[in-house]
Every structure is written in C-alpha cells, then in structure tokens.
Amino acid sequence: MSANLAQLGWDESWSSQSSPDPQLRPARVARTDRGRCVVHTGDGTQHARLSPDLQPAPTTGDWVLLDADGTVTAVLPRRTTVIRGAGRNDARGQVLAANVDVLFVISPLSTAPNLGRLERMLALAWESGARPVVLLTKADLSADPEADRAEAAQAALGVDVIAASVVDGLGFDEVRALLPAGRTGALIGPSGSGKSSLVNALADEETLTTGDIRSDGKGRHTSTARELVPMPWGALLLDTPGLRGVQLWDSAAGIEQTFSDIETLATECRFGDCTHHGEPGCAVAGAVADGALSARRLANYEKLLREQTWLAGRYDARLRAEQRRVWKVQAKAYRQRPAR
Q1: Going by C-beta distance under 8 Å and a sequence separation of 6 or more, which residues neighbour residue 79?
Q2: 81-239 fold
Q3: Which of 28, 123, 218, 272 could anchor a disulfide with 258, C-beta 3.0 to 4.6 Å?
Q4: Of 78-87, 145-154, 248-257, which range is least confident?
Q5: Considering only CA atoms, which of 10, 104, 31, 21 is closest in space to residue 68?
Q6: What is the CA radius of gyration of the chain?
Q7: CATH code of the domain occupying 3-75
C-alpha cells in the first residue's frame, strides 16, 4: 500500500471494495466542478473526467476508481455522508461531504454562542455517521472563552467542545489529536466563522482564500467549493462554504441523539403519548419547571421534530409523484403499442 494512499485514508477495507482490474486505480476526490473533479492519488493530484453514466455523482471526500485515461468509472460505497436539505422547495438532500471521520461544527466566539443553530448542526452531524466535535473559533475575541465553552456544552451533550484561535494556536493540539494521519475531518458552520483561516493555520500555508467580516457582523462567502486539504502531519481537512441556513434532511436519529436528555426524560412521563404540554406526570415539563432543562432547548427540540415530520411528508409526496409519473409513461406506452 502506498504511504501516500494511506495518508489519504486508504486501508484494507477500502481495498476489499475496490476492483481487481489492474487498469483501475483508487483516488480521493479533493474537489468537484461541472462534470469534472480534482483527485488525490498515490502519485499526486490530477484532474479527472466523469464517466457519462456514473452514479452517484462523486462528492468531495469520495473514494473513486480511475481508468487508464483518467476517467472516474466508479464511486466506492460511502462510510459516512454529510447531507443537508436542498431547500424548502426541494425535497432532495444535498451531499456536502463523504467519508468524514470527524465533523467539526463551527461556532465563532465573535458573538455569543447560538445554541439553537448549534443543536441544528449537531443533529446533521450525528446523522452523518461521523464523530461530531464543536469548535468555538475566534476565541481571542471572547471576554471569557471558558464560560462560552461551558454554555455551548449545554447544547452539545456527549460531544467534545474546543475553544480555538488562529491568533495564538489555542485548541490546535486538540484538533490534531482528533485527526491522526490517515483520518479526515470536515468543517461546517456559518460564513465568516473562520473555517478557511483555521485550515490555513493548521496547514501552515495560505491554502484557502479568506475574507473580511461585513459591517453588520455577518461573514461573506469566501469558500465557494468544498475542498479536501492535506495537513502536514498526514491527516486531511475539508472546508465547506458557509451555511447561512441548515435545513435538515432525514435526520430523525440525529435529532434523537442531539436531544438524548429530553428523549430519556420522555420515557419517564406517565403517559406514553405525552406531548409535554400540560399532561399530569410529565417528566419533561417537570424538568423545565425545576430548572434541570431549559425551556429554550425543549422549544428547539420540538421545532426540529416538526421540521423533520414536514420534510418526511414532502419526501414521501415527491416519491408518490415520481411513481405516478412512471405509471403514466408506462400506461401511455401500453396504449400506443401496435395492435396484434
């Protein structure tokens, strides 16, 4: 096994899923762009064309197989997949990254932690199959980073919360420890949260473009494509464009994991179908009343559940509409077939 391939994450498990054809060689997708992609191979980096009938379309982080002409002919099955909803008017999911080991949920300390947004992104992170980690960037701008870290931890049960700063390298050792050689990390968070600056600092070079913060405090989109960047110690880090809004997609398990405290409390309610709004013997309402559970957290949990239910209905409706379209095409073909 090439040492370079191993640093890209290639292992015996991937090898067992590959093709025995010696004309096909593995590569890791670094970036995609309009029917082409840039891939890392054991010999370097190159541009690759996509086979016309290739399914699924490769995304950043995928392992693919290249033929002798440098064309991607297959995408190997994904171990983890980071997916968000494509938009309120679209029932499809948008794949942000594949085969990520650690997913860093970014929240900048240039303002107080947005716990609702953090919980939403953690639901997406848990659903991906990767290990979620909360990374509080721009800690040098916080008056009390440790207090901010403790506040964020209230929304991130069972998740490491790290305060980081590119100014003095705070948190860098913890990030490196989570990403030994051959492992892949990805960053998701809002525009202007310092993702590209963090990648550049960890890579010890100006690999990605960075931008200033607007006068209203919001970030500009400086990363326009998802890109997999090799780190000096042998790991890889994937930067993503800033997410102004994160719509969930098929994230029921992720919501359950993110709000495991509420899920556990709900099992102690007197009634199995308790709505946690006025029923006697409600353990969830009791926890809110005595301060063990914040009303904000419960409200956000219920909001995300409603959104997930709505999205599931949209997805089912889309499937039904697609099936009706297929039936109509088949029926029309049957009616137009020549009489015997």
Answers
A1: 98, 99, 129
A2: Rossmann fold (3.40.50)
A3: 123
A4: 78-87
A5: 21
A6: 23
A7: 2.30.30.140
